[in-house]
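Researcher: Quick one. three chains, 710 residues in total.
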Amino acid sequence: MNKTDIAIAGCGAVTATGLGMELLQRAVAANASALQQREWVIGKTSQTVVAGFIADEIVGQLRAADAVHADSRAFLFAAAALQEAAFQTKNILNSVPATRRGLVLSTTKANIEALDKLVRKQPVSAVAQRQIQPAFLAADLAAAFDFRGPVQCVSAACISGLSALQQGAALIRRGLADLVFVAGVDLISQFVLSGFNSLKSLDPDGCRPFDKSRIGLSLGEGAAAIILVKRERLSSPAILLSGCGTSNDANHLTGPSRDGSGLALAIQRALAKAQIAPDKIDYINAHGTGTPYNDAMESLALRAVFGDRVPPFSSSKGIFGHTLGTAGVLETALCVAAMQNNLLPGTPRLRERDPVAPDSLLAEPRTAAKLDYILKINCGFGGTNAAQVLERELP
Amino acid sequence: MEPLIEELKAKIIAGFNLEGVTPADINSDEPIFGTGLELDSIDALELVAILESDYGIVITERSVADKAFASLRALAEFVAANRT
Amino acid sequence: MKNFTIHAAGYLGPEGFGNDQTGLRNWPPLLKEDLARGEFDGLHWSLLSDSDPSRFLRMNLMCRLGFLAAELLAVNFDALPNARRDKLGVCVESFTGSLDTDIRFEQTPRPSIFAYTLPSTVIGEICIRHRLKGPVLSLISPNSNGESILTEAAEWLRDGDAEMVLCLGIEAINRSTANSISLPEDLSPRGWHGAALLLGRSGNSPREKPLANGALSEVCRNLCLAPERAC
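Model:
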């Protein structure tokens, strides 16, 4: 099949910015950060954590509407994002039989909060426990939305989201589904906070991607959903999920390769699949977590691929944090919105660009003269890398 | 200082799963990281975690860790001076 | 899929350990008892060879099984030129994933354990060891037998994304770890295994087998139970 055969029909999101894509886009336009400060006990000490928490009011709202899943925030968030995406595309959805609708879930730890509680012998419902298992969370979400086609679950660290989009596209190309919901979800939990804290990779004051004085990342929680269909089901101009590439650094488990060659390889693979030269890319949404190593490595990778003509790029993690398994889906949805609004996102929380980062780094949002090709990249634990090209058809 | 050095060697051997390594094999005056024990950056973080849980010492600055990990002897002196 | 074949199969499970050439060897009696009870700490590199890769003891259960299964393939990855290693993909499918390690991390929140609380870490460990830079994929699925991963790998080969693919199916949890928190029964796997298949283009190697239909762990087990020894 032609590389330009899979289109994005709709998106949904729930993040620190609030419920829905509209609030996310407002945050992008305002270059605002939705990171919040909370006290959290890690080990024996109470620490201040700045992260992309989902507001209590939103959690309360979602719980009130779904008592069965009240203590499974992973389900509640994913369902909310899926609901928004489904609503946006209800005409197409209604024309696709349930057996031809598929779901691909992207998550690193699913409903891990339930494991936190189980280990500490705190009360937790059977449903919440069941959804510790990512495959069951995926199955339950599919059942809730009456998707009776193929269901898959990707768990590949921080590249899960882009990998899940690739899997969704493959299901359609293979003829197993006509419409695939790709959903990403992950939570800020005791498990994840204490883990990243033990690796000393958090910035207690909040992340500053690509900043000269950056010292770490901020976690984020939430969900995002993207609906994929065959191009012919949409009227033009469509936004297409074009080439994708993955790779492994083969260097170190928790530190990216020093020279960025693994990420550069993933980007080159994506461009080759998309059948475009690097100079066609109009904007890059980086992984940009704010750790000293990641952002330096990404800068090297971008220079390796684009030479001294790195397209405008930015990191959005200052808005909602590093959402782990959600990141690839959420940040792709953000790129889709960028294309729809013709607005290149900035890099919230940036004060002074690290000289190591290419000078095409966007501090503030900017109206795009041309926004036909976007490159989305993510890197994960274990040295994994993924890159995805989005293409907007000309009218 | 010697008993504390031996205690720390035992914790390192156990904590990093260094099978077949005895305390006598670890030189008290050589750098802990970057030499024969083949320890890496996760192990350095692990040592920081052990210092927190077993001695109540919280290290937040990399420079402090670098000095303390210069050798087993340096580590023992650091622990003796800062343990709670 | 006619143009692709299985170049090697490696397997560890209750039935024993081995590959498609040697067949399955029995576990040493004491270890066999431990494994039957669902205790995996005794699975050591020394089963296969004397030289211990230093990382092995740091690794969690999932990575140890994957590492051992890949080693059992008896394929000399290091003899491959870099260009071929750049096109060697690695994919893994599991039901339990890193759950054993997740529980241990909850109980002892150390950075060295946290590094292993992801099912995709085994991909990282193997890629680091053999310097593989091909495409990667990590799936969690409700069946323990790795039913999806062979389809994915075959597509990579067909589309030219990879020239060879190392497919892993890994399943295990230490019974004592699961019992320590009264883990709900449906979150535990049925049985355990570490299975590795190396897929590639059809060539002239006598060791090659046709790419069979079926789930990864079953295909792998069958090949290792009925080895064809070279005369």
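Chain C has a mean pLDDT of 92.
Researcher: Thanks, that's what I needed.
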